[in-house]
Each structure stands twice: as C-alpha cells, then as structure tokens.
Amino acid sequence: MECYKEFAHIYDKLINKDIDYEKWANVILKICKEQSLGKNDYLDLGCGTGNLTEQILPEFDNTWAVDLSYEMLTEAENKMRNKGKKVKFICQDITELNLNRKFDLITCCLDSTNYILDEIEVKKYFQCVFNHLKDNGIFIFDINSYYKLTKILGNNIYNYDDENVTYIWENHLEDELVDMYLTFFVKEGDLYRRFDEEHSERAYEFEEIRLLLSEAGFEVIKIMDNYEDKDITNTTERIVYVVRKKVEFHG
Q1: Same domain assignment for residues 99 and 171
Q2: Domain Methyltransferase: where (predicted)?
C-alpha cells in the first residue's frame, strides 16, 4: 500500500490547520539573512503540496521542488499554476537525488526525513544534499524526535471527524519503526468514500543524525526546537537542524 496517493487530494484541508508554514518560512529566511546566503537557487525536498515552497520562493530567483508522490506534486503544481507562481517540480527519490544543479538553500521539512527507514539510506540522502549545495550553501530540515515517535505516537490510536472527512489513525511501534495505518472516509454527496493508506517513520536518535551529518561533510550551525529560537530538550517533538556545506581549504 502506497502513501500520499488519495490522501494528497485532502492533505491541505487536514494539515494546514496544524502547521504555520508562514512562521516556518520566516524563521528559515531569517537564518538565510543571518548567514548572508545567496538567493539565486532554492530546492525544497519532500515538498508535498508545496505549502512551504510557496512561502519561500518569492525570495529566490529560481525554485525547484522534489517529491516522491506524483499525486502530491500534481496538487502542488496546480496550486502554483493557479497563483501564477513558477516552480520546477520533479518526481524523484531524495535518497537518489540527481538534478545536475546546485542550490544556495535546500529544505526538507515536516518530518520527510523520518520516512527514510534505513540509516544507510539516510547517509545517501545527506550525501545527495551535500552534492547539490553550492559552497557554503545551507540545508535546513526537521525530524520527528525519537521521543515523539516512541513515546507519543508509539502504539496509540487517533481519530478525526468533521462533516466532510473522518479518519482513524492506528500506530504500531516495533524496533524504532512506527507503522501508521490510516482509514479515511471522505464525504461525496450523501455517501462517504473509504480509502486506506499505510505510512512508516523511523525514530532516529539526536546524536545518530549529528554523526551522519558530520560524515557527509556538514557543519552544524544551529539546532532548534520546532522552529523556535530555543534549545531542544528531552521532550522536544520536532528537531530542526540548520547545517552548512563546509568548504575545505588546501594550502
């Protein structure tokens, strides 16, 4: 069972209530300004329906966006076209990123990194990002913390209900993997249409991510608690990493 297929078409109605994309973008752009980052080329990985992409693209000359879900990209492309905004959308696996272009800023937000379930694949992903950054380019991404995935989401069941959409979300935790089984009922006329999706996220320890970043050649600039200018704690739910592509000098 694939994820982000039919869900893509109702994604914004459900997620936009909980995520302040404008705030996240403002934090990211403030960091870019503080780091005197160039604003020619921007790449958003795991872009989904393009909500963060849309907030950041006005500050850059060229914007590219990548996602593995064709359905999510379709929603994003329709949204940008209707608003007259120009973005180059690519359907690609971020662990095998190959765009033949380098960027000043790369982002990957809303825990897309947790969807990479194997440490070796995360290492490949970080290396791909490194290779697509310009010298001293910045990579900003977030993850659901180990605490959130194992202690909060864990083996719990959630549900949501309004007049148009009802869903049941059941989680199963085993060996640091959280398998999420979602059943949706979407109102269509007087009836409800059912569809099911399965999502999986891997819980990564904080130091595990730091080590993989270092091995890929990144320098950590800042680590934040959920796009707030404060240090993470043992109960932080979303960890934000701000890293730079280090330039090696040989003399």
Answers
A1: no
A2: 43-137
Contacts of residue 163, defined as CB under 8 A and 6 or more positions apart, other chains included, come to 187
Same domain, yes or no, for 164 and 210? no
Together in a domain, 174 and 185:
yes
Query: How confident is the model at residue 163, as a pLDDT?
Result: 86
Are 5 and 197 contacting, i.e. CB atoms less than 8 angstroms apart?
yes
Quick one: CA dihedral 45, 133, 216, 107, positive or negative?
Answer: negative
Tokens of 25: 């973008």
User: Do residue 157 and residue 236 come from a single domain?
Assistant: no
Residue 78 has pLDDT above 60, yes or no: yes
pLDDT band at 2 (very low <50, low <70, confident <90, very high): low
Helix, strand, coil share (%) of the chain residues, nearest 5: 35, 35, 30
Which amino acid appears at position 167 of this protein? Y
8-52: per-residue pLDDT in tens? 999 998 988 889 999 999 999 999 999 999 999 999 999 999 999
| pTM for this model (two decimals) | 0.95
How does pLDDT run across 98-113, given as a tens digit for each residue? 999 999 999 999 999 9
- How far is it, in rounded angstroms, from Cα 203 to Cα 169? 18
Dihedral angle computed from the Cα positions of residues 180, 175, 141 and 137, in that order, rounded to the nearest 10 degrees: -140
Does residue 90 fall inside a structural domain? Answer: yes
Query: Within 10 Å of residue 237's Cβ, how many Cβ atoms?
Result: 17
Alpha carbons 214 and 37: distance in angstroms, whole number: 21
For residues 107 and 169, state if they share a domain: no
Percent of the chain with pLDDT over 90: 92
Q: Read off the tokens for 226.
A: 């959920």
CB distance 142 to 241 below 8 Å: yes
Does residue 127 lie within any of the structural domains? yes
